[in-house]
Structure formats: C-alpha cells, structure tokens
Amino acid sequence: MSQPPTQQRADFITGDDVRSACRASRWTGQTSGLAPGYAQANLVILPEAQAFDFLMFCRRNPKPCPLLDVTEPGEFTPRSLAPNSDLRTDLPSYRVWRDGELTDEIGDISALWRRDFVSFVIGCSFTFEAALLRANIPVRHIELERNVPMFRTNIECQPAGIFHGPMVVSMRPMTPSNAIRAVQITSRFADVHGAPIHLGLPEQIGVSDLQAPDFGEAVPVHRDELPVFWACGVTPQAVLMAAKPPLVITHTPGCMFVTDVLDETLALG
Amino acid sequence: MSQPPTQQRADFITGDDVRSACRASRWTGQTSGLAPGYAQANLVILPEAQAFDFLMFCRRNPKPCPLLDVTEPGEFTPRSLAPNSDLRTDLPSYRVWRDGELTDEIGDISALWRRDFVSFVIGCSFTFEAALLRANIPVRHIELERNVPMFRTNIECQPAGIFHGPMVVSMRPMTPSNAIRAVQITSRFADVHGAPIHLGLPEQIGVSDLQAPDFGEAVPVHRDELPVFWACGVTPQAVLMAAKPPLVITHTPGCMFVTDVLDETLALG
Predict the structure, then answer these.
(1) Which of A22, A237, B2, B154 has the fewest CB atoms in 10 Å of its CB?
(2) What single string gives the DSSP state of each residue in B71-89?
(3) Contact with chain B for residue A222, Cβ under 8 A
(4) What is the mean pLDDT of residues B207-234?
C-alpha cells in the first residue's frame, strides 16, 4: 500500500473533515484556518482522581477556562460538540505529561486510554478572532503570521484543590475605536473567553514589557493603539504543569479539536 | 390665593409628577435625580423651514443626536414618550434663541407657539449613567456633584443643509475593567448615545488637556484610570448655535423633559 495522499488546507470544509483526516493520520499539523467557521477547542484529559479539582477550578475561573463540554469518566465523545467524534484519535497531535514533565508527543492516544479518564473541552480564542476579522478589525499576530503574545499577570486565579496560579492573558493591539468594537464583539462569546479583562494600562496587571511575552511571540504596538488583554486558554495549561499531577494528556499547541459547532452558535444574541 | 406649596425632590415618583409640577409652575429647577428610572430628554424646537435639515443632521449623526421622537408641525405632544404631555409647558425652563443669540429664559412657551414648530426630543446620558450606577460603576462628576466635562473634538459631524460642526464628547474617567463594563452596558443604550466613541488616547480625537473642558466642569483623572468619551447631546446645541437659524427654542441645560418611558425600555436585550 502506498501512503495516503496528503491533503490541502482548503480540502477541510467541516469539523468532520478535519477529524477524519486526523483519525486516518492524513493530517498531523496545526489546525488554524482549517474548516473555517467551525469552533476549535483546547483539550485536557485527566484521571478521575484529579478531575473534580480541575472541574472546580474551571468553574471558578470561567474567563480563562470556559468549558464547552466535560465527558463522563471513560467516555471519549463530547456529544454536545461532535456526536461522531473520538477524542483519542481526532486531534492532529497530543502531548503526554507525567508529574508535570512532557514525556511524549503522539498522534493517537488509544493505547494510553483508561476507563477513569475525564476529558475537558475548553473554548479557544480562534472563535472570537474569526468574529473580529469578519468585522474588519485587524488582528496583528494573524497579519504577521505569528503566535499571539501571552503574559503572566499579577491576577491570581481562584484556587481549587491542587490547582492554583496566575491568570495568563493574550494581548492584541488595537486603535481605541477598534478596542471598543472588540469589547462589543467578544462580549457575545462568553464561552470562548468573552470580553477583555483589561486594556490600556498593562502595568496595572503586572505586565511591564509588552515586547517580552511569557509565551508566544511579540508583536509591535503602534503609537495610536492600546494593548487589549483577554483571559487565555494557556492559563489552565500553566496551572496543570505547576500542579504536576501524575498524568495529563493535552492537545499539542495549535493542534486543536475541531468541533461540529459553528463559531456563531457560541455567540449570544 | 396663596402660592402653590413647594415640592420636595422625593415627591416626584413618575415622569407625569414632574411634568404636572412644571405645568403648574411648582417646579422650575434642574431635573437630575427626579422620578428615578424614567428617561429624561433634550428638547430642540425649530420652525418647519429648518426642520428637514436638522432631521437629516440627526439621522446622519445618531451617536451625538439620538432621536427619541419628532413631532409633526404644530403638534406639541410626543406620543411615543408621554401621551398626555405638552412640550409647551412641561419642562421647568426653556431658552429662546434668535439668530444664534440667547434672548430669553422662560418657564412656559405657550405664548410663542407656532403652527409650524417641529419638536425634536433627543436622548440624554442620564439614562445610561443610571445604568452604570446600578452596576456599581462610579461616575466621577456625579460623586463630585459637578456637571460632566465636555470637549470639542477633531471629529467632524456629517453635515446636513445649514448644520455642521465638530462632535462634542463627554468624558468619564474609569479604571480599565470598569471601562470594559461601561462599553458593555452603554452599548445596550443605542438611543441615548450608546457605546463610547473613544477611550485612552485623547490627543487622537483632538483633546489636549483633560483639565480644560470646553463645556461643563473638570474632574480629576486618576493614575489608574482611562478617560472614556461618549458622543454628547451638546453637539446638536453647538451646531444649532453655529448655524444661527432665525428662531430655536431649547430646554435650559439640566432642565429636561421627563418622559413616561423607563430607562430600561430604551435598552437592548
């Protein structure tokens, strides 16, 4: 048998197209821009022993950790998001963490699956960025084809059990009038981080140098722009790594779970 | 006959209470804080000869000139706002302007009324300030019992006929998180100026000194605050004065038309 033919990005029209290609190992790369209009999500898988603490952590910190679905122990299909999906195979790439250390990066976690695994599917800022772009609001890191700049803040998350730590935020520079529009637009997307948590005075949230992000890549902030900060899905990852539970499986950054749910169905109004 | 007894502010429960007192000359002062929850409005009365131009001006500049009602020529009851009201008598005080000059300040305009008069009832920021206060967002000029600071900007209104001029804005200092909440809250009130038009970088809109407002009174802006700017109902007044039509009647500043409409019914959602 020859290798399966490689697929072009434009071949992926629906969430199911992406998931099928991942399942068949025909796609192993980033999902940004695939199946436009379909919501993409972060994935965290934990044994049931740590699941209650993490669920409480997400509940207490909904802006950085907006839960789109949580499965029963052993269940690998988030039915509300994609009823024919399989979280063990349908992402391009997974990371396996043991005692807080990255031990493996693999394309299929079926062999590791346990009946006590609980899967947390967490909203992703791709959804509101698509809405910003549709409103003609430029998003600098997308224009520059960079990862979004992210910063640790001085805002402590509400702790829960073993999980605690500072909120991580993403930053997008905008003119004041676009910042006002962006507050309006992202307020409609409460399930994917919602409205900004700050704008304009970064030192107030403990961000001293906009050109030195803690994660992602720096982008220029022009003289006529304000830095606008959203709670970021890296927060739960940072908190997980700090808590060092015995075993966690996550998506590989940028290699998201693509759902059947349209971005617009996650919007209010 | 003795003088009618004077009324206390707390006596005014409804819009009708205020209007009745004005009609009987029992109230001639400012309306701020009277009949809490009822929307108050700006009033502009023009002869029909200038009314089309002014209506077009308001239509083209809805953020500074949000029209709540416009009467037919000669009609003095804005039925959608207060079906038993009389715009000739129901405000505490009126100003009469001839060729752009203030010629009179009176409590009743019945003697001046003409069958070609068109009345424009324009939304007022009192409505959204009440909503901000209900959300525990402090409003500095209210705390300090001052008039709101207002500034001429470098933003030109869309002209219409004889009417043209720069947009006037009001400024309220807020912490960044309150500024974000204020965008959300005031976005719901499109009929009373709606969302801010700017925040954070005043020089961009031609405001060089926050402590030197063009109208109203200055308020301090603290180090942890951003100046937030809303389109202001003084814009149409400034534009009217500049155009110098032969005759205009307006409310006296602060002496508004109090309607039967609840503030909340002017909100979306």
Answers:
(1) B2
(2) PPTT----TTT-TT--TTT
(3) no
(4) 96
Q: In whole angstroms, give the CA distance from residue B138 to residue B225.
A: 12
> Please, which residues have CB within 8 angstroms of residue A23's CB and are 6 or more apart in sequence?
A86, A89, A90
Closest to A46 measured CA to CA, from A98, A85, A8, A1: A98
pLDDT exceeds cutoff 70 at A3: no
User: Residues A185, B213: contact at Cβ < 8 Å?
Assistant: no
> Are A179 and A84 within one domain?
no
> Using an 8 Å Cβ cutoff, are B248 and B94 in contact?
no
Assigned domain for B2 exists:
no
Q: Which chain A residue has its CA at the smallest distance from B197's CA?
A: A177
Tens-digit pLDDT profile for residues B10-35? 889 999 999 999 999 999 999 988 99
Chain A touched by B204 (CB under 8 Å): yes
- Closest residue of A to B202, CA-based? A176
User: In angstroms, what separates the C-alpha of B179 from chain A's closest C-alpha?
Assistant: 9
Residue B222 pLDDT greater than 50, yes or no:
yes
- Residue A34: inside a domain: yes
Domain that holds residue B147: 126-236
Picking from B59, B60, B58, the residue whose alpha carbon sits closest to that of residue B44 is B58
Nearest-by-Cβ selection for B176 from A177, A187, A200: A200
Q: What is the ipTM of this complex?
A: 0.81
Interface of B with A in 229-258 (CB under 8 A): none
pLDDT at residue B6 tops 80: no
Residue of A nearest to B187 (CA): A184
Q: What is the pTM of this model?
A: 0.86
Residue B181 pLDDT greater than 70, yes or no: yes
The DSSP output letter for A215 is: B
Q: Is the pLDDT confidence value at A4 over 80?
A: no
Structure tokens at A44: 């965290």
Mark whether B155 and B207 lie in a shared domain. Answer: yes
Asked if A130 and A120 sit in the same domain, the reply is no
Lookup: tokens for B128: 């959204």
Q: Does the residue A44 lie in any domain?
A: yes
Residue A204 and residue B176: Cβ atoms within 8 Å? Answer: yes
Interior CA angle at B148 toward B196 and B232, to 5°? Answer: 45
pLDDT in tens, A124-157: 998 999 999 999 999 999 999 888 999 999 999 9
Q: Which residue has the tokens 């108050």?
A: B40
